[in-house]
Amino acid sequence: IGCLSPFLTSHMRHLGFSLSEISFINAVSAFFSIIGPLLGGTFAERKNRYKSTTIFCILVGAMAFVALSFVPRYEKLNYRPLVDFDCDAGLRVERCVNWATCGEAMDSTDNLTKIKLSNCHYQCPKSGHFTSPYPLHLCFHGDSGNICVVFDADNRNSTLTEFESHLQSWPYVEVPAQSNVSTINSTQMIEEDVPRAHVAMCNHLPLAPVTFNQKQYQGISCRPKRDDCSIHCKVVFETGGKTVYPRQCEEAFGNPTTTFWSYLVLRSIGDFCLLTAICLLDAITIWSTVDYEGCYGRIHVWAALGMAALAPISGSLLDYYTDMDGRLDFSPPAFLAATFAVICGALIIVLPIHRQKSLQFQQAVMPTKEVKFFSGEMIIFLGIVLVLGMQWSILYIFLPWLTNDIGCTAMQTGLACTLMFGFSVPFLLISKNMVRNIGKANLLVFAFLFYFTRYAGITFVSSPWWTLPFALMGSFTLCVMWIASVAYGQKLAPPGYSLIMQYLLNLLHFGIGE
Fold first, then answer.
1. Is there a contact between 119 and 234 (Cβ–Cβ < 8 Å)?
2. Per-residue 3-state assignment (H helix, E strand, C coil) for 53-78
3. DSSP state of 513
4. Tens-digit pLDDT profile for residues 82-120
5. Which are the contacts of 197, defined by CB distance < 8 A and separation ≥ 6?
6. CA distance 470 to 192
7. What is the pTM of this model?
8. Which candidate, 42, 61, 80, 56, places its Cα nearest to that of 4?
9. CA–CA dist 355, 362 (Å, integer)
10. Rounded-to-10 torsion of CA 398, 403, 409, 414
11. What is the spatial distance between Cα 172 and Cα 203, in angstroms, rounded to a whole number?
12. Dihedral sign for Cα atoms in the order 330, 331, 333, 337
């Protein structure tokens, strides 16, 4: 669990899922994980096959999580389209595949758009760039006369000229990629050069009137011309004093349907088996002791140590195998988790697991007669566990998204998990004294207070390292809270219903709550 759980949301985000899709997948997988303990626990109890059922769930769950690392990525690429001004073709904008027509290039507005041209130069498909012995002119033509602006070649990055027009009303012509042959064969490329043979373009033709120096003109041209060359300029748009850009291009790589459903199925299988295995192991723990305040907490020290040790290792592997483009390789932590799953299965085979037959055990976990299970206090307590499960799931699902946004690496995410579970070890060792001296109900109240403090704190955190102090609070919101909940639940459970209570706590907190 420590190898995988801190990084599942980051992996889903990397695959291209939106926040709503991540929420939906977690909800569906949690629903199926509720069914797992009901089926697996019933089968193991009736057939007395706790060992084989637990091993099966651990291994199948591990294989499902390994398979998640091979789910194809669905990527959406958003970028600004290429744009320049061609004296012959007009305003040229890269044709984005997400536009129905070239008319969607610019947002609709009734305001005039100020068009600034700079860095004008010749572009020749065959011979490369051409330098004219005469200065380049940009001319505006009208009924009352013409006016030309001379381009200063010595100050090419300065604004050549600016004019105003209703850009959205300009007619356009779509130029397919194969027809766009104005590529430059010369190696003398300029940064602002746009034309590429493989890029479809939208040519927006200037439409009268064009306003320059508060006078209106009918057209625009450039000179001196050369037959095999065109004149291109860098262009910037302003509307209402603000710089505006064409609508963004959106390109999708991969199949979103394949990615979504393959991940959903594999994740549901993984969570189904994982929660089933947890419930079965918890049932074995209940068999092993009736000291739900002390011994139960000390047994869970080993689980806390495992989570604390493996989370930063998996995080470091994720960081190490992340390529220069930021693409995560989820397979190293998945295979690490699978390795420990095999070791866990081997230990279950070797170690003796059997029911105790003592009278104390029979009275604690084996129903002897029909008694009323639910009471008013029981219903309120189970409702509190459910709400705590909701709080846990919010952090489990959405906190990695927040930490990624503020720049946390996978190693820092794993380190937060280490602090959380490592800090809980002393409290688990003294759980008996803590539960008896502080009180079960008070510990549950403390869990809510720490949840509140953690929510409030991480809302204002902007540095990755400042997330770590709030991770320490997880010791109380999960580990200490769970010991108090188990002790409280087993106290309320009628004789013979200890196993049922334990299953119910796991299902409410980790299943229905999520």
1. yes
2. HHHHHHHHHHHHHHHHCCCCCCEEEE
3. -
4. 888 888 888 889 888 888 888 888 887 777 888 888 888
5. 177, 178, 180, 181, 183
6. 48
7. 0.72
8. 61
9. 10
10. -60
11. 5
12. positive
